[in-house]
Hints:
Shape of chain A: globular
Number of strands of chain A: 19
Oligomer: homotetramer
Strand order of the largest sheet of chain A: 1-2-3-7-4
Order of helices and strands of chain A: EEEHEEEEEHHEEHEHEHHEEEEEEEH
Number of helices of chain A: 8
Helix content of chain A: 25-40%
Largest interface: C-D, 118 and 116 residues
Amino acid sequence: MSNTFGNIFRLTTFGESHGPAIGGVIDGVPAGFRLDTDAIQHQLDRRRPGQSAIVTGRRESDTVQLLSGIFDGVTTGTPIGFIIPNTDQHSSDYDAMRDLYRPSHADYTYTAKYGLRDHRGGGRSSARETASRVVAGAIARQILESKGITVTAYTSSVGPLSLDRPYTALDLSLADSNIVRCPDADMARRMIELIEQVKADGDTIGGIVTCVIKGVPAGLGEPVADKLNATLASAMMSINAAKGFELGMGFEGSRHRGSEVIDPFEAGHDGSVHTTANHSGGIQGGITNGADIYFNVAFKPVATLLRPVETIDADGNTVTLKARGRHDPCVVPRAVPVVEAMAAITLLDAWLMNKSSRL
Amino acid sequence: MSNTFGNIFRLTTFGESHGPAIGGVIDGVPAGFRLDTDAIQHQLDRRRPGQSAIVTGRRESDTVQLLSGIFDGVTTGTPIGFIIPNTDQHSSDYDAMRDLYRPSHADYTYTAKYGLRDHRGGGRSSARETASRVVAGAIARQILESKGITVTAYTSSVGPLSLDRPYTALDLSLADSNIVRCPDADMARRMIELIEQVKADGDTIGGIVTCVIKGVPAGLGEPVADKLNATLASAMMSINAAKGFELGMGFEGSRHRGSEVIDPFEAGHDGSVHTTANHSGGIQGGITNGADIYFNVAFKPVATLLRPVETIDADGNTVTLKARGRHDPCVVPRAVPVVEAMAAITLLDAWLMNKSSRL
Amino acid sequence: MSNTFGNIFRLTTFGESHGPAIGGVIDGVPAGFRLDTDAIQHQLDRRRPGQSAIVTGRRESDTVQLLSGIFDGVTTGTPIGFIIPNTDQHSSDYDAMRDLYRPSHADYTYTAKYGLRDHRGGGRSSARETASRVVAGAIARQILESKGITVTAYTSSVGPLSLDRPYTALDLSLADSNIVRCPDADMARRMIELIEQVKADGDTIGGIVTCVIKGVPAGLGEPVADKLNATLASAMMSINAAKGFELGMGFEGSRHRGSEVIDPFEAGHDGSVHTTANHSGGIQGGITNGADIYFNVAFKPVATLLRPVETIDADGNTVTLKARGRHDPCVVPRAVPVVEAMAAITLLDAWLMNKSSRL
Amino acid sequence: MSNTFGNIFRLTTFGESHGPAIGGVIDGVPAGFRLDTDAIQHQLDRRRPGQSAIVTGRRESDTVQLLSGIFDGVTTGTPIGFIIPNTDQHSSDYDAMRDLYRPSHADYTYTAKYGLRDHRGGGRSSARETASRVVAGAIARQILESKGITVTAYTSSVGPLSLDRPYTALDLSLADSNIVRCPDADMARRMIELIEQVKADGDTIGGIVTCVIKGVPAGLGEPVADKLNATLASAMMSINAAKGFELGMGFEGSRHRGSEVIDPFEAGHDGSVHTTANHSGGIQGGITNGADIYFNVAFKPVATLLRPVETIDADGNTVTLKARGRHDPCVVPRAVPVVEAMAAITLLDAWLMNKSSRL
């Protein structure tokens, strides 16, 4: 429900931006899998604040402590509880915001829902919560990789700058070769310059992350309520600042005729079935067809500007907000590992659910 | 899970396109609400096949039988079970498809998942299943309306034809005044002509449905896993042929700077809080802020063309498929009430979940 | 939740005693299983009212209509929706009870919860709802039997009459050889005489059902929240009139020392592990150990007496209730197939959940 | 599912007996409640090992660290994550048991399910896990008390020693006045002597805990799958070593006639409805009627004897087990606060679910 993702492979997260720690519990991890804990930390490092000049300056080591569910390095089938201590809170930066509602933030909506909120660093609404998802995603990813399934995301747009080539024309292994995580070096340079300019302006900017999942067997996903496109959409839209999701040709596909976008089938010499095009993005009727899954996630610009903004306080008075805190001018570079994590969690859950589709 | 929507207000559906009936069970309907059963049938009529020249010619009365959960016209709090008999199956139309995989359909993916499938009329993967959702949506809608919440969807694009005005510049009450369900009469005429042309060509075409929810109180939605944008995205992407979802400015918003798209707060004379813009689409941090919720859903063109198409059979032989069956050249007009139904189901569930957010 | 049983193999039921039909949806049925529909009807016949002189005289054929999820006699993996029409309602028998609260019935509690109720035949609180469970149980049972798992229940007590032999000393195949479903012919005769006497007195009587599950592989059940003993307890206590559950030695075991009741392990020549005693009832730490599962379920006497009873109406007036309706003097004989059904549903769900315990 | 309790008020636990910590996440805590954290620690102290001469000698301070969900002492509506560090593990005590299956323990069943297990201190199957439940229960209890609902459990039997008076004839406030938690001082003394004798014999003994819930409003609980008696049964049977549950008259009630055990209604001068007897234990049709809820939970004797026991190892060899570890001769005194915790969790969940039973 509220703070739990998944059906069989289930992640429940907790924690506020400025509390002692964030963390979670991962239930449904299959037993007998040897975990690479360094690889978990590596994924956290990819999401970590302070990793480059174009992300927030908050300095968190984001060191995960795995508390259970692993014995002699192998999963036991029991839940993996973990915490990530918060170490670099500057809570006093937020004192002035205690009774303010920052525009386009969750300050007002949390207060409307709960009657109060932890205002420090955005509390629970902070994207810091996604670090817990990266932990679970890093575990799911390892299990998927043992089955030949890989998940790779990259920055495909920053503001108006957009890669005009499809993922199939890119070398995705280059995504992490630059700080904006765009696999096209020239475009990466331009994106970085734009983010630096936006930051210098005290402004922020949106962007798009594209994610590609390869090696998926046909038959994953459920047919109606838990169509894999639906669970992926939910997983992605649950990431902070996500405002749009499209699978395969997505919105562009809606502008076309059927004859232009159907994906013809072809039989391999070995009797295998595959499609000769992939406008569908690897999912038909909610279930994978064995082709690559690919999708886009749109992120709005961060709502916290580093310039004065007018807003109101809880008493309805107009006030001028001068954000202190430390904020990303563009979330997209750090959203890349979060998108991958949520994709991995969703895929592994579908993979496990599919185990009971036949006797 | 697989065939169940919602947490508290829960719909579980069953049924295949060519079985004796489809139907469902709606659990979690609050007690004491006087239902207008004619209004349920009216929503089914809006989704019904055979309703106009631009939709499938299958002739189903789609008469719902409510079997439980209502006493003297009032909900009792116990589940509402219902069936909609199938009456106009032409199953023999599908005999030739028994061992074929139609391109971009679920034929292959169901077979890959389950090892077999009911091939008649697409079986469970048929959009006929959405009639059951319309029943639950029609009930949810009535309850929401009693709370001042209204849900209205309309066709905003058919292929390349797209309304260039936002919903705020349209008279949404006109959406049902034409068979394509576009509230702009001139655009509606052009869309209808395009669909007729596409149909004459034996082809199909995609489109976009826009949905607007008004009167939503601030505070609905959950903060992390069940962000209202996430549950709406999942609900919409679970509709047959849906390939994209965007809330508020969505993908377009990702191209902008924060200073251009934040939604300033303003206090009313009565102390109420509202925003002076609504780029966010009424949801911030996963929770409603009291502004209108609006979103787009992209639908791909129907995969069944009424012209010969090459494909393969289960043995890998290339065969030519000449679809018989009766199919929509464009799903969008009939998707409008389904989008509304899923929106209503999702909102009511959020409304009921929110009852326990405070003591 | 409220009207749904199970996690993967999930049954959602609907329907009131005097509505047009009861029924349900069974989701999570694995694909590819050839169902014996006669065997489903056979189980319903075992639960059917009017089957003998010692059960209620209501005459229902209890004919199930399977509406989906089966193609050419084989499960397709999609939900099985079904209805059982109500045909012999005598709703007017209940007119006088409309505003009464029958003692020890759910009349008052439903009204307290929902503000209203369908008073006819007990509405949703009628044990008639369990017919839907028997349908799902009959399907689960067939699947379990294909895996070598059998479920057998029998009447072990009626009022003070109690079998003093354990199930291992009985021929369980004789349970259905008499109308009270006790495998000991002499005890069965005495139980039947007692029920007839109680009925002649216008009274009712309680009893105990014992259930035995054989052929269970070791390893089923979850370790903490869904311990198999916990899910079995919940399943059994959800049956109308159930007031107690005990596994293995149960309450009697609590009176003993550990040295008297531990179950020693022994290795077979083939390396298999088994226990030389079974005080635990086949479950240790919530998970099966391969020994027989056995448990008792206590049922209170039916609350409707066929003699005048004083009670109050909704206005607080004292009134004399003279039950008309048709009621069981003892629920136990008809509870036997319901206990079996719930056991089969619970076991199959555990069996399917266990598929994801390892990669 | 596996490690999660509840629907709205949901506890997910993690942790092994000898890992760095156990803990959990409590989701669905209503916002705006001022928590008494000392009272949480007090409940943990009641369950703590080493608290008296008749419980295990393991020395754990069981200090809970609340990590989230609370701001300025008040619940925020976001999840409460917490850990309880393990500090007094003697893991080497278990070295000899690594490849053994202790009789009537979960060693074999975990291995059968998962293929491996953390053998140290029983790993996840240790009753140490219940400390996490006590934390959640202590929070639920405070919220319930603010609504006038109280939960009290006590030891009613130890082995053959059984209180012969009903709870209504006892002063329940005396339950904690002795180390066995029996409110009858004389019986308490005899129970303590028995446990000491059993301990001296290197043996263990079972017992029964009785729980009473007062101040419950009518209308809590769900009518079919989540009958309150079913969810209570599941909650109780999920406690380590629990083997039986009975509500109200329970098994004894099954031996009676209906005329002897129905609970007549009576109207108060203020129009309130209550019963003049309470054989039902406060629940009718799965829903509370406003009378006290009371039930018994049977616990088997602890399986670890402090005397040599023969068993087998993973290779099927017969070996003699000489338990070291530190174990309770009787779990019942420490089970009392666990029973209360699970009752409080279950009741609060029902209370919150009931909020959506009407509009």
